[in-house]
Amino acid sequence: MGQVMRHAFRGSILACALLLALPLSAHHSGAMFDATKTLKFDGTVKEFQWTNPHSWLQLLVADGKGGQEEWSLELGPLVGLHRAGWKPRTLQPGDKVSVVFNPLRDGTHGGKLITVTLPGGQVLNGQGGSQDAAEARHSS
Fold first, then answer.
1. To which CATH superfamily is domain 39-139 assigned?
2. What's the predicted TM-score (pTM) here?
3. What is the chain's mean pLDDT, rounded?
């Protein structure tokens, strides 16, 4: 009976380890973003999606021809954003903001948000964490 119990215990430990590893394997990498480039735009918030596992900012940016382009910017996880001062209603449709982000490698209108400057001048880290951490990523 002792050997059977040890085998069952090892099996349950393995099952727990596999369950804990699933969220890690499901998380995507940042390889789609070009971390060597940063873009800065002023734009108008179309939509802010406070969602798990990542929030999204839909931003309308002047295209230089009298029209607008829509950009999709990915933010960090909710826990980090909340700790950095974000709330579900931090951004509202129509807000005028300035963003700094790493663009998508394929050139489509999207990227990973580094910072956003709110209408009142407050700057928030788009990946969560301190403003200093965002500035360090931006300057490197």
1. Nucleic acid-binding proteins (2.40.50.140)
2. 0.74
3. 83
